[in-house]
């Protein structure tokens, strides 16, 4: 609704006109206000239709959890960025905050779009602020390459999507979500229609990412500054999942045969990227590959097209968003102290920063999908629906769960337990800001244990 | 240049284009094109630099060839049909010859080889005139004839987008990059010419606005290579922060207004059942996007903490009027939501 979108747009004005001494406090308070207001979207009416409709924006049980996650993430990004931006000149700080806010505006418009081309335009629009954040404020030389990979992988996938949407529009007449379910299905056996099916899905598979086209993600996540990593992991990957869920409606009945290789590729990707995680030396890279692993499971769940698959995918997306963002914040606390992402350079931190170890513990447990957290609920529902589709997927998903548990535990034990290396002479104690940041990530996750119906999607 | 001479030359350029706009007789159209060509030649070689003179001669030769081919085609048409009217060309040989002649005039692939070298020899302002004003008269003619050969226009268009993309990849001279960008955009315009001519006009006008911003931004920085752009953040920080958006708009990224012509052209092509061509053209735009992104990396998105090893440009106070730059930059960035209004305006 407009009462969230218009304040977000005016937050841009506030960024540029606040007095500099009060900039961060003002923006933080403003974004918390918007985030609190957005929580009203979670109160869904009991039917599964659309609500809060105007001509261009509407919400339904699928998009409202993702919207709330988007709005919740902006204050968290601002808290996380405060430290590393403090050394920059004033105008650049304002520019950075404006980029984060414009990203939120585009995301709100994307998740609440009622028409596919609007979704497409906003999907692409999120690329530009993210590109600028990665390449301008990243810390290493490789960030230019990362930005290029990020932009070109996503665009190479999404330009065929644009053509596919225009083809559908010219044959069916409308691309509005509200009327998609009542349009006739595309039943045909032509090779061109199979290419059309592929074109519709490719953009979202690249964005999710699917295992074969995932190369942009480790680069982009690692080179981005903390706010960039947070928003990439938490929300931008979910744009791919959300788009896939929306477009599945028009892709029947071709999906029955055509999705087979992609489901297998997604599950294989779960195992492969999990195994890569076990061999990583770079902490952010480990978390990035863990994201690919979880999103592979989400992709498989969506391609199965069953109610439990969709519900599991949505819950896993929300839970993974919060967890992955929390892990990136924890990795950032390490980075700000040692200015290195190498895991072995910052080991045994439980001795030095015991309270941070609590957050590491909780986040690692969430990552390995411990009951009763919603991560487990999502994974179990997806694994069950995959088992229903074919018994043999249990081998792949079971192995995947095992490897996920092992690398999450590996990450926790390596960073927290054991002796401290001798070169760590002076580490700053944990800031209250960092504790607040992690509490705000993990508290919603813990609260979702009590009422997961909020993020269940249509099949409440 | 002597202000009187400059005035006469600029008026002559305007006169030439206006004559072509107003003409319905082929001889008059040809005459307007020739006046246009001859008027810009002194502007092009005014610095008397050998490269400028070479560029002028190359431009003259290609444009004269194109005009002669145009004259030949219109005489052939007059011989066959007995009339000189622009709109009534019904035989395929004269129409095809006219299309090829106009393609040489504006620099479509595979008749594009003169464009990068000519633009490289000019200063930025004359280059701007070459890229924008000089394209108006040939496009006016292209929009009026009825092209009979569908595949010719599609081949010209697709080849131009591909050549414009691949050719610009290895350049670090800004004027050559702008030349290849011009070739690519002209390709997009030609693709949709026979289906929806108003979109050609829309793409042309959008291209004018975007290129104007880019040329003037480069002129404000007084830089002609990518390397010299890297110090612009200290001279003109706001322009430096706007140029990536102009470049991404030229590359056709939503939500900037450069997406509008590409979107509408892809829509028209899919309606005409040319979806594979549409996909190929869209993907070839990614090639151009790569070198636009590279320029924006050099200019804004990277900043050396220390002084670069390049020679630092002088930071002289600038009296340039930046109001046109401000207007065209705003249009380049913010015009996409007005798409329905613009389509209505153009299809009236």
Automatic annotation (TrEMBL), chain A:
<keyword id="KW-0520">NAD</keyword>
<dbReference type="InterPro" id="IPR000260">
    <property type="entry name" value="NADH4_N"/>
</dbReference>
<feature type="transmembrane region" description="Helical">
    <location>
        <begin position="93"/>
        <end position="111"/>
    </location>
</feature>
<feature type="transmembrane region" description="Helical">
    <location>
        <begin position="62"/>
        <end position="81"/>
    </location>
</feature>
<feature type="transmembrane region" description="Helical">
    <location>
        <begin position="21"/>
        <end position="42"/>
    </location>
</feature>
<feature type="transmembrane region" description="Helical">
    <location>
        <begin position="149"/>
        <end position="168"/>
    </location>
</feature>
<feature type="transmembrane region" description="Helical">
    <location>
        <begin position="286"/>
        <end position="304"/>
    </location>
</feature>
<dbReference type="GO" id="GO:0048039">
    <property type="term" value="F:ubiquinone binding"/>
</dbReference>
<feature type="transmembrane region" description="Helical">
    <location>
        <begin position="229"/>
        <end position="248"/>
    </location>
</feature>
<feature type="domain" description="NADH:ubiquinone oxidoreductase chain 4 N-terminal">
    <location>
        <begin position="1"/>
        <end position="110"/>
    </location>
</feature>
<protein>
    <recommendedName>
        <fullName>NADH-ubiquinone oxidoreductase chain 4</fullName>
        <ecNumber>7.1.1.2</ecNumber>
    </recommendedName>
</protein>
<keyword id="KW-0679">Respiratory chain</keyword>
<dbReference type="GO" id="GO:0015990">
    <property type="term" value="P:electron transport coupled proton transport"/>
</dbReference>
<feature type="domain" description="NADH:quinone oxidoreductase/Mrp antiporter transmembrane">
    <location>
        <begin position="113"/>
        <end position="404"/>
    </location>
</feature>
<feature type="transmembrane region" description="Helical">
    <location>
        <begin position="195"/>
        <end position="217"/>
    </location>
</feature>
<dbReference type="GO" id="GO:0003954">
    <property type="term" value="F:NADH dehydrogenase activity"/>
</dbReference>
<dbReference type="Pfam" id="PF00361">
    <property type="entry name" value="Proton_antipo_M"/>
</dbReference>
<dbReference type="InterPro" id="IPR001750">
    <property type="entry name" value="ND/Mrp_TM"/>
</dbReference>
<dbReference type="InterPro" id="IPR003918">
    <property type="entry name" value="NADH_UbQ_OxRdtase"/>
</dbReference>
<feature type="transmembrane region" description="Helical">
    <location>
        <begin position="352"/>
        <end position="370"/>
    </location>
</feature>
<feature type="transmembrane region" description="Helical">
    <location>
        <begin position="310"/>
        <end position="331"/>
    </location>
</feature>
<dbReference type="Pfam" id="PF01059">
    <property type="entry name" value="Oxidored_q5_N"/>
</dbReference>
From TrEMBL, chain B:
<protein>
    <recommendedName>
        <fullName>NADH-ubiquinone oxidoreductase chain 2</fullName>
        <ecNumber>7.1.1.2</ecNumber>
    </recommendedName>
</protein>
<dbReference type="InterPro" id="IPR003917">
    <property type="entry name" value="NADH_UbQ_OxRdtase_chain2"/>
</dbReference>
<comment type="similarity">
    <text>Belongs to the complex I subunit 2 family.</text>
</comment>
<feature type="transmembrane region" description="Helical">
    <location>
        <begin position="273"/>
        <end position="293"/>
    </location>
</feature>
<keyword id="KW-0830">Ubiquinone</keyword>
<keyword id="KW-0496">Mitochondrion</keyword>
<dbReference type="GO" id="GO:0008137">
    <property type="term" value="F:NADH dehydrogenase (ubiquinone) activity"/>
</dbReference>
<keyword id="KW-0520">NAD</keyword>
<dbReference type="Pfam" id="PF00361">
    <property type="entry name" value="Proton_antipo_M"/>
</dbReference>
<feature type="domain" description="NADH dehydrogenase subunit 2 C-terminal">
    <location>
        <begin position="289"/>
        <end position="343"/>
    </location>
</feature>
<feature type="transmembrane region" description="Helical">
    <location>
        <begin position="323"/>
        <end position="346"/>
    </location>
</feature>
<feature type="transmembrane region" description="Helical">
    <location>
        <begin position="233"/>
        <end position="253"/>
    </location>
</feature>
<keyword id="KW-0812">Transmembrane</keyword>
<keyword id="KW-0813">Transport</keyword>
<dbReference type="GO" id="GO:0006120">
    <property type="term" value="P:mitochondrial electron transport, NADH to ubiquinone"/>
</dbReference>
<keyword id="KW-0999">Mitochondrion inner membrane</keyword>
<dbReference type="InterPro" id="IPR001750">
    <property type="entry name" value="ND/Mrp_TM"/>
</dbReference>
<keyword id="KW-0472">Membrane</keyword>
<feature type="domain" description="NADH:quinone oxidoreductase/Mrp antiporter transmembrane">
    <location>
        <begin position="23"/>
        <end position="287"/>
    </location>
</feature>
<feature type="transmembrane region" description="Helical">
    <location>
        <begin position="57"/>
        <end position="80"/>
    </location>
</feature>
<comment type="function">
    <text>Core subunit of the mitochondrial membrane respiratory chain NADH dehydrogenase (Complex I) which catalyzes electron transfer from NADH through the respiratory chain, using ubiquinone as an electron acceptor. Essential for the catalytic activity and assembly of complex I.</text>
</comment>
<keyword id="KW-0249">Electron transport</keyword>
């Amino acid at each position: 609704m407009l009462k969230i979108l218009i304040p977000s747009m005016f937050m841009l004005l506030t960024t540029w006109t606040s007095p500099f001494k009060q900039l961060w406090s003002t923006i933080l308070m403003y974004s918390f206000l918007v985030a609190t207001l957005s929580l009203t979207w979670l109160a869904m009416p009991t039917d599964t239709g659309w609500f809060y409709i105007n001509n261009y924006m509407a919400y339904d049980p699928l998009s409202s959890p993702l919207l709330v996650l988007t709005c919740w993430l902006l204050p968290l990004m601002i808290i996380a960025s405060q430290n590393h931006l403090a050394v920059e000149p004033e105008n650049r700080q304002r520019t950075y905050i404006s980029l984060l806010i414009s990203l939120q505006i585009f995301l709100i418009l994307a998740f609440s779009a009622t028409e596919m081309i609007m979704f497409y335009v906003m999907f692409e629009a999120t690329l530009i602020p993210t590109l600028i954040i990665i390449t301008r404020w990243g810390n290493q030389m490789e960030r230019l390459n990362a930005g290029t990979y990020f932009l070109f992988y996503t665009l190479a996938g999404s330009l065929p999507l644009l053509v596919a949407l225009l083809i559908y529009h010219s044959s069916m007449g409308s691309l509005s979500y509200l009327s998609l379910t009542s349009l006739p299905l595309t039943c045909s056996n032509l090779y061109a229609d199979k290419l059309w099916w592929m074109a519709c899905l490719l953009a979202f598979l690249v964005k999710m990412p699917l295992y074969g086209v995932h190369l942009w993600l480790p680069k982009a996540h690692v080179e981005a500054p903390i706010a960039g990593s947070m928003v990439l992991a938490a929300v931008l990957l979910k744009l791919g999942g959300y788009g896939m869920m929306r477009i599945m409606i028009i892709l029947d009945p071709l999906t029955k045969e055509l999705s087979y290789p992609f489901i297998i590729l997604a599950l294989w990707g779960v195992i492969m990227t999990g195994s890569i995680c076990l061999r990583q030396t770079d902490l952010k890279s480990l978390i990035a590959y863990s994201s690919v692993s979880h999103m592979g499971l989400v992709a498989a769940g969506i391609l199965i097209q069953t109610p439990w698959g969709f519900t599991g995918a949505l819950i896993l997306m929300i839970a993974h968003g919060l967890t992955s963002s929390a892990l990136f914040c924890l990795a950032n606390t390490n980075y700000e102290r040692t200015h290195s992402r190498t895991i072995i350079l910052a080991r045994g931190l439980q001795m030095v920063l015991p309270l941070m170890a609590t957050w590491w513990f909780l986040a690692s447990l969430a990552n390995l999908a411990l009951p009763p957290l919603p991560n487990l609920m999502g994974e179990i529902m997806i694994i069950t629906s995959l088992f229903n589709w074919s018994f043999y997927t249990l081998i792949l998903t079971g192995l995947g769960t095992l490897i996920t548990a092992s690398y999450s535990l590996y990450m926790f034990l390596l960073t927290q337990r054991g002796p401290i290396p001798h070169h760590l002479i002076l580490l700053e104690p944990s800031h209250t800001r960092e504790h607040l940041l992690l509490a705000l990530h993990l508290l919603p996750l813990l609260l979702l244990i009590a009422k997961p119906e909020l993020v269940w999607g249509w099949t409440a | 240049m002597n202000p009187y001479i400059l005035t006469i030359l600029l008026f002559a350029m305007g006169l030439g284009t206006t004559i072509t706009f107003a003409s319905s007789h082929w001889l008059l159209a040809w005459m307007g094109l020739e006046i246009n060509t001859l008027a810009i030649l002194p502007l092009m070689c005014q610095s008397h630099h050998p490269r400028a003179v070479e560029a002028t001669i190359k431009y003259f030769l290609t444009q004269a060839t194109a005009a002669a081919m145009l004259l030949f085609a219109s005489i052939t048409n007059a011989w066959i049909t007995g009339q000189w009217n622009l709109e009534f060309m019904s035989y395929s040989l004269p129409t095809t010859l006219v299309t090829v002649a106009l393609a040489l005039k504006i620099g479509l692939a595979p008749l594009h080889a003169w464009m990068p070298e000519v633009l490289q020899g000019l200063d930025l302002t004359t280059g701007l005139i070459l890229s924008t004003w000089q394209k108006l008269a040939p496009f006016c003619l292209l929009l009026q004839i009825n092209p009979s050969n569908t595949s010719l226009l599609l081949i010209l268009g697709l080849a131009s987008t591909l050549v414009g993309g691949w050719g610009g990849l290895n350049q670090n001279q800004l004027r050559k990059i702008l030349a290849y960008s011009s070739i690519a955009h002209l390709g997009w315009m030609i693709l949709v010419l026979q289906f929806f001519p108003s979109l050609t006009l829309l793409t042309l006008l959008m291209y004018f606005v975007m290129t104007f911003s880019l040329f003037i931004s480069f002129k404000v920085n007084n830089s002609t290579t990518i390397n010299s752009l890297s110090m612009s953040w200290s001279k003109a920080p706001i322009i430096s922060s706007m140029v990536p958006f102009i470049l991404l708009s030229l590359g056709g990224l939503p939500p900037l207004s450069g997406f509008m012509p590409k979107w509408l052209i892809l829509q028209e092509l899919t309606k005409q059942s040319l979806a594979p061509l549409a996909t190929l053209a869209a993907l070839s735009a990614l090639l151009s996007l790569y070198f636009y992104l590279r320029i924006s990396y050099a200019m804004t998105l990277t900043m050396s903490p220390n002084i670069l090893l390049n020679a630092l440009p002088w930071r002289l106070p600038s009296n340039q009027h930046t109001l046109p730059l401000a207007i065209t930059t705003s249009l380049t960035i913010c015009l996409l939501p007005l798409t329905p209004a613009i389509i209505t305006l153009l299809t009236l």
